Amino acid sequence: MEHFAQQAYQIFLQGVAAVQPKQFMRNCLPAALVQEATRIFVLGAGKAATTMAQETESLLGSKITQGLIVTNDPAAAPLSRIQTITGRHPVPDENSLIAGTAMLEMAGAMQSGDLVLFLLSGGASSLLADVPEGVAMEELQQLFNTLLKSGADIREMNTVRKHLSAIKGGQLARRLHPARIYTIILSDVPGNDPAVIGSGPTVADPSTFTEAWAVLEKYRLVDTLPAGIRHHLEQGLTGAVAETPKPGSIPHAQYCIAASNSIALAAAKEKAAQLGYHTTVLTDTATGEARELALRLARQALAYEGPFPACLLAGGESTVQVSGTGKGGRNQELALAAGLVIKDAPYITFLAAGTDGIDGPTDAAGAVINAHLLQGAPDPLPFLHNNDAYHFFEKTGSLLKTGHTHTNVMDMVVILLQQPPAFR
């Protein structure tokens, strides 16, 4: 990887390191609730569930009565007091159902005086799953896969998920009563809304069946809904199926946002400064279609008028409307689209990557691009049209492969600007 691409990657990795669970778990454990509890149960779901659970075990040890987490990392280290189930992301599988069933069974055994520490991170919506009566798992998988490719954002996705579940949207919290619940959250959504992160199984939900139906109408999916899914949602619209618990209805549940994208960006900014860059954080809530977001960010880089060398940082989560048959993820698509804009600006390097280390259904976290890496590369436009960014970056050797990072606070964009020729 060439020099400036390597520097951008170092800045990204510093941001990821700052949101590892070992950096925040000790400060997030509710000491008073732990002291008062008769029994302590540790439950959790998400891409960071294993490392969060490891830190919890190291801090509480034998105080933990029982535990269960579900994660997507097949190489997750074993835990001594907390059971681990490996599920699938971003579409649930049978292990996700097993985890959902097991967690509901544990919830039914809670007593007054019990404390549930729930460890929540991105990916939980898929990893912890159940199906409504009369609905087949394959039907849910198909619907969620279609929504993922439709361009729906995370709030819209999870509004639908919460209303096709008896776990999500605060419903697990309702089942855990009379235990006290304290949820420690690693945020992977813009704005850090706890009701959206991981579909909020232990957090009150302001969304409704009406809103879930509206999402499906927006993306023209109502007419193709399987009969069982359609029936469940229509029952919810008429009140025959209970709504998710609304704000104020689960007073036995508390939460804290332990880490977020802004913390990662602050650490990345510090690293960039150490490397000699004048650094600006543009936003930690970047959203929108990946190609459109790439255009906005690349134009900001081209219009930059501050001191050089410079580093522009952004965090958030884009979406992709998949129409091609290629391979890639939203960050790879974002970087490729940006490359088309900066190809004649050799002083700009553009990196986009997911802090979880997994971008879409690929083994890469994202990609980095600049004019140097584009030299001798094939025409990027056909790859972009076919949603095939992975194979383009495979040819340029600029895929970023971190493996599972055991954390997840959305995505990061690192843009490095050297002094343009006109300024020299």
From TrEMBL:
Domain MOFRL span(s) in chain numbering: 310-411
SUPFAM superfamilies tied to this protein: GckA/TtuD-like
Gene3D superfamilies associated with the record: Glycerate kinase, MOFRL-like N-terminal domain (3.40.50.10180), MOFRL domain (3.40.1480.10)
Pfam families noted in UniProt: DUF4147 (PF13660), MOFRL (PF05161)
Lineage: superkingdom: Bacteria
Limits of the MOFRL-associated domain: 8-234
InterPro entries, sorted: GK-like_C_sf, GK_N_sf, MOFRL, MOFRL_assoc_dom, MOFRL_protein
UniProt xrefs under PANTHER family: GLYCERATE KINASE
Record-given protein name: Glycerate kinase
Protein species of origin: Chitinophaga alhagiae
